[in-house]
Amino acid sequence: MSKLAQRAQKLFIQYLRENNLKVTQERLALLEEIFSTGEHLDADELLARMKSKHRKVSRATVYRTLDLLVQCGLVRKSRLGREHYFYEKMEPGGGHHHMVCAATGKIIEFWDADLDERLRRICQEHNFRPNFISIQIQGLSEEAQKLEQETTFF
């Protein structure tokens, strides 16, 4: 387990105890799975990963645990161009934005320090204190554009 995952586990256990919730092996296993990947996962993908590793976790436990991880700030929940939510681990200083291909669902992460600084200045100009800044750009990835060109008659 990485140092980030170990720190997340300590924080999650502390959060559960402070809120009089049980610290279960299933909850800790779900946290470990999320922190072992850099991918954006939906609840069904997370459940499938657990089953493929022969970890018995119910669908309800997956959803409840994801909600708890979001509430305690260890996981971010985003709707990335589809009808359902994706979850990703939060890393200190790991803020980023997303480009989402409308054709393939491909998610491209990007970060631009100048853009983030400009957004902070805009907030400051309006006496607004941001807690979180997120940009999502929807469009067509390079692969989808090529496919579109190959299948277009005109």
Main features:
Arc Repressor Mutant, subunit A; 6 helices; two-stranded antiparallel ribbon; alpha+beta; 2 domains
- How many extended strands? 5
SSE succession = HHHHEEEEHEH
Helix content: 40-55%
Low-pLDDT runs of 5+ residues are none
- Give the CA-CA distance, first to last residue: 53 Å
Class from helix and strand fractions:
alpha+beta
Mean pLDDT: 85
Could you say how many structural domains there are in total? 2
Q: Could you tell me the radius of gyration in angstroms?
A: 18 Å
Instruction: Tell me the strand order in the biggest sheet.
Output: 4-3-5
CATH class bucket of the largest domain: Mainly Alpha
Short description:
With 154 residues, this protein is α+β, with helices and mostly antiparallel strands. The protein is 47% helix and 15% strand. The mean pLDDT is 85.
Topology summary:
Elements: H1 3-18, H2 25-35, H3 43-52, H4 59-71, E1 75-79, E2 85-89, E3 97-101, E4 107-110, H5 113-125, E5 136-139, H6 142-151
Parallel strand pairs: 3-5
Antiparallel strand pairs: 1-2, 3-4
Description:
- The chain is an alpha+beta fold.
- It folds into two domains: 1-91, Winged helix-like DNA-binding domain superfamily/Winged helix DNA-binding domain (Arc Repressor Mutant, subunit A); 95-154, Ferric-uptake regulator, C-terminal dimerisarion domain (Dna Ligase, domain 1).
- The chain contains six helices and five strands.
- The strands form two sheets. A three-stranded mixed beta sheet has the order 4-3-5, with no helix packed on it. A two-stranded antiparallel sheet has the order 1-2.
- A hairpin with a 5-residue loop joins strand 1 and strand 2 (85-89).
- The model has no long low-confidence stretch (mean pLDDT 85).
